[in-house]
Amino acid sequence: MPAMRVFALPYLALPILLALTASAPHAALADEPVPVEKQNPGDSSGTLSPKQQLDNLFTALKRQRDPDQASLIADQINAEFSDSGSATINLLMQWADKAIQDKRNGAAMDYLDQVISLKPDYVEGWNRRATLNFAIGDYRKSMEDINQVLRIEPRHFGALAGMAAILTETGNDAQALRVWERFLDVYPANRSAQQEADKLSEKIAGSRT
Question: CA–CA separation, 174 vs 30, rounded Å?
Answer without folding.
Answer: 44
